Amino acid sequence: MNKYDKFFHNFCKENYEQIFKYILVMIHYKSTAEDIVQEVFLIAYEKKKILFSYENKRAFLYKVSKNLTNEYIRKNQKCKTVELNENNVVDEEDLCDLIYHKEDEKIDEQKYIDDVINELSKDKKELYKLYYIDKIPMKNIAKELNLNEATLRMRFVRLRKDIKNKVKNIKFQNI
């Protein structure tokens, strides 16, 4: 065994555990970390003569470890596959409706429904009836009223705001 092999053998013994832990913290998979550590020390072995004269030999190992780990992470991020279940795919309009319904659940409309509805304009009453009572999706309401969906969504935003304000006013009047 020559001086370079002896150096490398001792160098591996001294640093293997720390390099392994360093990589494991970034990867979280023991078998993958072991593979990367092997690659790191293979590169170090191939460059053992140059490494022998390095001032900070451990820095070399950490730098190679970081580079190989980052390369592994980049490759795996590109290769990730997402399994789609047809039952879980939601139409964008359905998602909007779902969000709007969640927001609307915050309004305690049952408590003040008659007072609030009576205060709405004719157009707003119609929108309220179609969407909240008849449960017609916004997409269909837009077609029925010959409106752009974005315009209709904005009208519902205003309707909800109007209803919230009316509920607040009625609530304060009853206090």
Automatic annotation (TrEMBL):
Lineage per the UniProt record: Bacteria, Bacillati, Bacillota, Clostridia, Peptostreptococcales
UniProt-recorded Gene Ontology molecular function terms: DNA binding; sigma factor activity
Residue ranges that the Swiss-Prot or TrEMBL entry lists as coiled coil: none
Domain RNA polymerase sigma-70 region, residue spans: 14-78
Protein family per UniProt: Belongs to the sigma-70 factor family. ECF subfamily.
Ranges of residues in domain RNA polymerase sigma factor 70 region 4 type: 112-162
InterPro entries membership: RNA_pol_sigma-70-like, RNA_pol_sigma-70_dom, RNA_pol_sigma70_ECF_CS, RNA_pol_sigma70_r2, RNA_pol_sigma70_r4_t2, RNA_pol_sigma_r2, RNA_pol_sigma_r3/r4-like, WH-like_DNA-bd_sf
Keywords for the protein's UniProt record, in alphabetical order: DNA-binding, Sigma factor, Transcription, Transcription regulation
The protein, known as: RNA polymerase sigma factor
One example of a Gene Ontology biological process annotation: response to stress
